[in-house]
Amino acid sequence: MLRCMWISSVHNAFTASWSMGRKLLRKNKHTRTQEATCLATGYYPHGARVRWVRGERHEPVPEHMLLGGEELPNGDGTFQTRLTLRHLGEEEYKCQVDHSSQETPMMRTLEKPRTRMFLLSPALSVVLIIVMVVVAKRIYERCHHQDETDLPQETRL
């Protein structure tokens, strides 16, 4: 049996022909770059191939963008392989796992977090509106006062 897990801050669970997993897309504290980890675990016999591919043509990700990939034994006689993708770009990335227990490779797309629109709290919105009204009033008064000083002496009240 082959289990694939995705480690991510998104925490979206998915169901597939293997066990459930969760996704993790995180920022590296040291390099300030995004990373994603693909974990294939619980498989037997050894020899799973885990790789990251990118784009619609599933081109392999260059080695300098990867970390890990070593196959390690689990305590129950099965094996695991973890491969981390570093320095994510704007492309679409997929993790592909090949194993002799599967007829076809398993592939899952990395889902990047959706960007959230900046929403103002109601209190902050009210404060901004008040500030804009005060500024507009001062500009009006300054312009209106300027208009009065431009009038000839006889027309002033």
TrEMBL record:
Residues 37-111 form the Ig-like domain. PROSITE patterns: IG_LIKE. SUPFAM superfamilies: Immunoglobulin (SSF48726). The chain crosses the membrane at residues 117-136. It comes from the Eukaryota. GO terms for cellular component: external side of plasma membrane; extracellular space. InterPro entries: Ig-like_dom, Ig-like_dom_sf, Ig-like_fold, Ig_C1-set, MHC_class-I_related. Keywords: Glycoprotein, Membrane, Transmembrane, Transmembrane helix. It holds the Pfam family C1-set. GO terms for biological process: immune response. This is Ig-like domain-containing protein. It comes from Alosa alosa.
